[in-house]
Specification:
With 234 residues, the chain is of the alpha+beta class. The protein has 2 domains: 39 residues; 191 residues, Beta Barrel (L,D-transpeptidase catalytic domain-like). The protein is built from 7 helices and 8 strands, in the order H-H-E-E-E-E-E-H-E-H-E-H-E-H-H. Strands 3-2-1-8-4-5-6-7 form an 8-stranded mixed β-sheet, with helices on both faces. The longest helix has 37 residues.
Length: 234
């Protein structure tokens, strides 16, 4: 058999395997989304899907994959749980919690988001957690914003996960909302330490709101572009 024929035969043999692997990868992604939807039935499955798409895109751009994911859905009122923390390896729900938004983002409903320092507004998009520290708000977790112009000033703004006494369902019943932060995704003090330890050290946090400009422009929601372009955007 000539070299050309041998090459053609090898390619023909590999094509079915390639498509089989591609199908397996898609099936795995679909099964993960399906598993997370089952363990968090109150969460919007479309938001979970966007969060998984963003983290997959981050991995495609060269960032390490994570085994835990926090999803915040700011389209929900502050009086309802809108933060879910998933174990992606075991496909389990670890936390379902209330979470605060910035005081200038809105009252019970958050509607305004910013990347500006001193805006006192929350930021959208994909974040990656870094280290913990003890500060004015106690045990806290720093987050690195990965989206230019959207949340990449998170470190400068000191947007961190921390516990706060104003994140309280009883207060929500009295005033129609939980307390608000200076832009940080603050959680109940009772769970803050455990939740932070679950997410520290390079896990992903995805903050969602149906903002058309962000949804249409986020590089982490458009992974059809070359990975090199996504990497340059960080």
């Amino acid at each position: 058999m000539s070299g050309l024929l041998r090459y053609a035969a090898c390619v023909a043999a590999l094509v079915p395997a390639f498509f089989s692997m591609s199908h397996a990868a898609r099936a795995t992604d679909a099964s993960l989304l399906d598993a997370l939807r089952k363990v968090a039935p109150q969460a919007n499955p479309k938001v979970i899907g966007l969060a998984l798409k963003a983290t997959d895109c981050a991995a495609a751009s060269g960032l390490p994959a994570s085994n835990r994911l926090a999803v915040i859905d700011y389209s929900r009122p502050s009086t309802e749980p809108r933060l879910w923390v998933f174990d992606l390896t075991r496909r389990k729900l670890l936390f379902k919690e209330l979470v605060a938004h910035g005081r200038n983002s809105g009252d019970n409903m958050a509607t305004k988001f910013s990347n500006r320092p001193d805006s006192l507004e929350s930021s959208l998009g994909l974040f990656r957690t870094t280290d913990t520290y003890d500060g004015r708000n106690g045990y806290s977790l720093r987050m690195d914003g990965l989206e230019p112009g959207v949340n990449d000033r998170a470190m400068e703004r000191a947007l961190v996960i921390h516990g706060a006494s104003y994140v309280d369902s009883r207060a929500a019943n009295k005033q129609g909302r939980i307390g608000r932060s200076w832009g940080c995704p603050a959680v109940r003090s009772a769970v803050a330490h455990r939740l932070i330890d679950t997410l520290k050290g390079g896990q992903y946090v995805f903050s969602y709101y149906p903002d058309h400009k962000w949804l249409g422009g986020s590089r982490y929601l458009k992974c059809d572009m070359p990975a090199s372009q996504i990497a340059k955007a960080r």
